[in-house]
Amino acid sequence: MLTPAEELGLSGSALASRVQRALHCLPEAVLARLIHRLREAALEQHLVYLHDGELEPVRILPCPITVLPDQLAYIHHITLGVQNALKRLPGLYLQDPAVAEILRLPEAEERWLRECWGTSQEEHNPLFGRLDAVVDFISPMWKDSLRFVEPNLSGIGGLHMVPTSERLIAGIMVPAIQGYDPDLQLTIGQDMRDLLTQVILEHTAAIGSGHRLCFVEPKYSGQGPDEQAEVARYLRTRHSLTVMHADSSELAVRGGRVWYGEELVDIAYRDYSVTDLLELQEEGIDVEPMRVRWPTPSAGSCSNS
Predict the structure, then answer these.
(1) Which of 91, 61, 86, 234 is CA-nearest to residue 151?
(2) pTM of this structure
(3) Where are the domains of the chain?
(4) Distance between CA 127 and CA 123 in Å, rounded?
(5) Four-residue CA torsion sign, 97, 101, 102, 104
(6) Alpha-carbon distance 267 to 285, whole Å?
C-alpha cells in the first residue's frame, strides 16, 4: 500500500502531466508567440540581470511548475524549522564555544557581531530569508527528495522576480493552457513582497521605530539582478510605505540617526554581508550608518535591521 505522502506525490505527477499535455497541444507557432510575449513582458516588468550595465531579460520558461496545497504546507513547515534554527545561531555562537569552533568567523567579522549583538537583537531578530533547495514534487518519494542547498539571509534575490514571473505565467500561459483543459484550475503563490512588508511592520512595532524604510545595496555596481528599486516601488504603491533606495556610501549619521540625503531612515534592509561592509570600510567608505541602532532604551548596541 502507498503511504499518504506517496499518494500525494502521484497526485502531483498527475497534475503536472495535465499541464504538460495541454501545453503540448498548443500549435508550435502559438507557443513561439507566447514565449516571445514572455520575453517582452520580462523587459516591461524589469525582470532583468545587469551585465556591465547592460540589461538582459530573465528567461521565463513557459511551463508552470505545479505544487499541491499539502506539498506547499509541508515545505512551509520544514523551512520554518530551518529558519528558526538559523535565527538562533548568533546567540549560540556567542554563548557556546563548541558552536563557535565549528562556525569560526574571521576576527573582524566576529568583532562586529560581538559589538552589535545584544539583548534587543536576541529578542527581536527578524529573519527574511530564501532557503535554496531542490525537490521533485512529482515523485512518489517527493518528501525524501527534498535537499537544502544554502540559506540566503540578507538582501535576498527573487523578491521582484519570483512574484512577477508567476503573474506573467498566470496572465500569458495559463489562459492558453486552460483553452485545452478548461477544468484545470491553477493559482499563484503568496507574493514575497507582501510577506516582506509584514515582517517589516511587525519588526518596527516590536522595536518602536517609525516605518521609513531604506533598501541598501551596491546600487551602482552594474552587475547582477536589478530588483530592489522595483520592490521599493511596489511597497510604496501597494502598502503606502516610505521607502528609499540607497548605496551604503550615500548614508550618513547626523544627530545619532541615519539619513539618506535629507530623508530620515528608521530601518534598513541590506544587501551587504558584514564581510562586504568591512571591505568597504577598508576602502575608506564610512559604514557606521549600518551599525547605528534605533534610539530606544531597550535597544542593543547596533541596528536591529
Answers:
(1) 86
(2) 0.87
(3) 4-290
(4) 12
(5) positive
(6) 20
